[in-house]
Design goal:
The structure holds two protein chains of two kinds. Chain A is mainly alpha-helical. Chain A is built from twelve helices and two strands. In chain A, helix 1 packs across helix 11 and helix 3 runs antiparallel to helix 9. The longest helix of chain A has 28 residues. By secondary structure, chain B is α/β, with parallel strands linked by helices. Among the domains of chain B are: 195 residues, Rossmann fold (3-Layer(aba) Sandwich); 70 residues, no CATH class. Chain B has a six-stranded mixed sheet, with helices on both faces. In chain B, strand 4 and strand 5 form a beta hairpin. In chain B, helix 13 crosses helix 20. The N terminus of chain B is likely disordered. The chains are: A mainly alpha, B alpha/beta. At the A-B interface, helix 7 and helix 8 of A face helix 4 of B.
């Protein structure tokens, strides 16, 4: 495998958590629920995913369990902001801290403090017959673990659902003008609930992927800011699934580049290179925010009987 | 005491029904709704017949919109029932209302700006397939738009469309859902006279097809022009229902405002907001005055006669070749020049979005001019710091009072201080005792209905917020006062109050620039009128030579 192919294959793997977390952010944001607990969801997803995989002996079980825990957090966020109309950012940040603490606690309760942490097997790569034999593209896209395929196919499905179906159009209208949606008989509350739940579940699944593809174990802080970057990436992607995938590739590219240059030892102190994804984020965001079309009702709560406009 | 008798007596609408006529399409019976301690609807009965345009008339806070929001399922009524075609229906959400055949065009359009016309129209309507297929819907919309005279481009993005077209989209939304009863909430705000005529023409076609239209308005002239039957509401109660042939503008005005004796007895929000009885009387007088110049059924645009002052003798304010850009950086004001005399009220009329806001901000120092100059009594102001504009006596009352006019969560006292706060400081600290005394004075002087100077400004009603903003403006003793849509959304009494204050300021030598989309307002106050179109002043005419239809053509760029 050539150096380039190897690099690109790593980028595609590194994309996966960004794709899941950002599509989750995008989905609930499209209905007006702005979840800012991504970093917490990723961390808790990593802990739950790792622990369940370890105890059950199946990575799939770990991913599903992480998704369920994420869904529970999403339900809490969507319900208290939709029905009690609490501030989305305050609740989101509270859930972030809760999830962070819960992840650490869970690991300590189940595993305890050990010198040699237990490991789970990494995800197996699936070779797609014929397609995997194409030079460069084959090994990069068609000889990957199933989560890579799920992330890419899921993103395409999300795009189709949001922009090519009636249900998707209704969902988008809730995030743009819930009063208009409500006045046309669209159920604003249920839309916010299910997108909040699914969005959070996707974030936790993004987290569960981390121990299954990198370390084989859980460590505190292993989300390493990916959750926060996912928020930035969602804006960068203009709240559209297809651009989010492109943005995820860019962010993942930065991440892999930083990692590789550490290993290669290229004169520059590796701390500087490690800063790269974050600096790139800042620069990109300065420009991306100019054109990013954000759902008009993002982060706000809808009250049908409020006499204030909007 | 006509209202009490009517409200308590037998259903007057019943008497209006032709003998042997069918039962009404819509009956609302004993509807009650409170917001906290405020009784918005106090046992309202309301019937609508088929093939009729039914006017729902009343001042701010009369409960017209609340009643219709109950009908449309946006507000849950505390009590009462609704019957459609004689059968009781339960309307708990807009979905139920749509299913019952009710369509509503809200004052602020309920549209998704980023969607196309077709997408907005079909949104929420069952299409029968999971995949979106807009082609058949687009054809239906084109047919409806053709049939009812509601010209729209189905593929246009709604956010790019002017107000008049967006309103047609709202009507099409209801027609597409096969509404039996179409409710329009203050539909003529921001429309040109030509657009109003076209709208009323479409409404006539709609009722001729067998539907019913409910027209919410506080403009008597409109109901006389467009409605077959009108119901007058006041203070959350129905005052009466009358046929157009059996009433007159005078009677409607009197019913709307109520007699002063009754107002004093009535402890309602509106009565208290009016404060003194003489304000009420003046308001009634004006309403009648305006209405008397109306000859139904043609849509006429009443022009109450006013003495126009002579053209300015001494030039007080000189605006020369001013250009300015909008927030997106595009040139929105082109080469505007104006000379204004001391004490002149100069109207600037135009359809919303033709550079009014940018012009207003440019000549008040809020927005930098990209070219041009401005002098006030010989003092150059262009390019100066805001504080110098303020000291020169330039005062701006912006259009969007909630966003640009006040700090909604700050107290009334703090809001009244803004801009003039330097006069209330001692050693750099605000002298709150003096500020509070000032606020107390202002609240009583301007009849601001508020719990006290410490209440959050944003909690007050629109009319009271505007009174507060005007109080702040006049306390600065302005030399140039710029008002942008100063009475939008205000009821008769508050509007009259604003007009009196403006005339008094002008009489005192203040130059007033009145930018308004309400042509009646421009005609009622101005001595000279400039028409703004695409950021240019296309014409300046004397008030006495102004013809509303000519102004309408200028405003839409038809004739220059």
């Amino acid at each position: 495998m050539s150096e380039l192919t190897n690099f690109l294959a790593l980028v595609v793997t590194a994309m996966v958590p960004y794709v899941f977390a950002s599509q989750g952010t995008m989905l609930s944001g499209r209905a007006g629920v702005f979840n800012v607990s991504q970093e917490g969801m990723l961390t808790l997803g990593a802990a739950v995913g790792f622990l369940v995989s370890l105890k059950v002996g199946s990575n799939a079980a770990g991913i599903i369990a992480a998704g369920l825990v994420g869904a529970l957090f999403g339900l809490v966020l969507a319900a208290v902001t939709t029905y009690l109309r609490l501030d989305q950012f305050v609740v989101g940040l509270a859930l972030f801290f809760l999830a962070l603490g819960a992840a650490s606690l869970l690991y300590r309760v189940v595993i305890g403090v050990t010198m040699s942490p237990p490991l789970i097997p990494l995800l197996q790569k699936w070779r797609i017959p014929l397609l995997a034999d194409i030079p460069v593209v084959g090994p990069v896209l068609f000889h990957q673990d199933p989560m890579v395929y799920l992330a890419l196919i899921g993103s395409a499905a999300l795009w189709w659902f949001l922009f090519r179906t009636d249900a998707g159009m209704r969902l988008r209208s809730v995030g743009e003008n819930p009063k208009a949606a409500d006045s046309l008989g669209i159920n604003v509350a249920s839309t916010r609930l299910w997108t909040g739940i699914v969005g959070s579940a996707l974030m936790a699944i993004a987290g569960a992927y981390l121990p299954m593809v990198y370390s084989g174990t859980y460590t505190d802080g292993m989300a390493a800011g990916r959750g926060w970057l996912a928020i930035a990436l969602t804006f960068f992607g203009g709240w559209r699934p297809q651009f989010i995938v492109a943005g995820a590739a860019f962010f993942a590219g930065m991440e892999v580049l930083a990692l590789r240059s550490q290993v290669a030892g290229i004169g520059i102190p590796h701390q500087f290179v490690a800063m790269l994804p974050y600096v790139a984020t800042l620069l990109v965001m300065i420009f991306a925010f100019r054109w990013a079309r954000v759902p008009a009702f993002l982060g706000r709560n809808y009250d049908r009987e409020s006499r204030l406009v909007g | 005491m006509v209202s009490n008798a009517a409200a308590a007596g037998p259903d007057p609408a019943a008497a209006l029904r032709p003998a042997g006529g069918q039962s009404p399409v819509l009956r609302m019976i004993d509807i009650r709704k409170s917001f906290g301690t405020v009784r918005a609807l106090d046992g309202v009965d309301f019937d609508v017949e088929a093939r009729q345009v039914h006017g729902l008339l009343g001042g701010n806070g009369a409960g017209k919109t609340t009643l219709m929001n109950v009908l449309y399922g946006l507000y849950a009524a505390d009590d009462g029932r609704i019957e459609i075609d004689g059968a009781r229906v339960s309307i708990r959400s807009p979905r139920d209302a749509i299913a019952a055949g009710i369509g509503m065009v809200h004052q602020s359009f309920l549209q998704v700006d980023t969607f196309t016309v077709t997408e907005n129209v079909v949104l929420g309507a069952a299409s029968g397939s999971f995949r979106t297929n807009l082609a058949p819907a687009g054809r239906t919309i084109a047919e409806l738009s053709d049939h009812f005279g509601l010209a729209v481009d189905p593929t246009a993005v709604v956010g790019d469309l002017p107000v008049g077209v967006r309103q047609r989209v709202e009507i099409l939304k209801a027609l597409y859902r096969k509404a039996k009863v179409l409710v329009l909430d203050e539909p003529t705000t921001n429309l040109t006279p030509q657009e109003v005529d076209a709208l009323f023409g479409s409404l006539r076609t709609i009722v001729d097809e067998g539907m019913s239209v409910i027209l919410i308005t506080h403009k008597i002239r409109e109901t006389m022009a467009a409605c077959d039957v009108m119901t007058v509401m006041r203070d959350g109660r129905r005052v009466t229902t009358v046929c157009r042939e059996d009433t007159s503008p005078d009677e409607l005005a009197a019913l709307m405002v109520g007699d002063t004796v009754e107002l004093e007895d009535d402890e309602t929000v509106m009565a208290a907001a009016m404060g003194a009885a003489d304000v009420t009387r003046t308001a009634m007088h004006t309403a009648m005055h305006a209405a008397m110049h109306t000859a139904p059924p043609a849509v006429t645009h009443a022009v109450p006669h006013r003495e126009a002052g002579p053209a300015p003798r001494t030039s007080h304010i000189r605006i020369e070749n001013v250009s300015a850009s909008n927030d997106a950086g595009a040139l929105a004001v082109h080469d505007v020049s104006l000379e204004l005399g001391r004490g002149e009220i100069h109207g600037i009329s135009g359809v919303a979005g033709n550079g009014q806001t940018e012009l207003a901000e440019a000549i008040t120092g809020v927005r930098p001019m990209s070219a041009g100059s401005m002098t006030l009594d010989g003092t150059h102001l262009a390019g100066r710091a805001t504080v110098e504009w303020l000291e020169a006596g330039v005062v701006y009352v912006p259009e969007d009072r909630q966003r640009d006019g006040i700090l909604p969560s700050a107290s009334i006292a703090a809001n009244l201080l803004l801009g003039g706060h330097r006069r209330f400081t001692r050693f750099g600290l605000i002298d709150w005792s003096r500020a509070r005394a000032m606020a107390t004075d202002v609240i009583s002087e301007y009849s601001i209905r508020a719990p006290g100077f410490g209440a959050a400004a944003g909690q007050m009603s629109g009319g009271n917020i505007q009174r507060m903003i005007l109080a702040r403006a006049f306390r600065r003793q302005p030399r140039l006062l710029l008002l942008h849509n100063p009475t939008r959304g205000l009821d008769l009494a508050s509007t009259q109050f604003v007009y009196e204050q403006v005339r008094r300021a002008a009489a005192g030598g203040c130059t007033v620039v009145l930018i308004s989309e309400d042509l009646d307002e421009i005609l009622a106050l101005s001595q000279r009128i400039s028409i703004i179109y695409s950021g240019r002043l296309v014409s300046t005419i004397d008030r006495n030579n102004a013809d509303p239809y000519q102004l309408g053509r200028l405003m839409t760029g038809v004739s220059v």
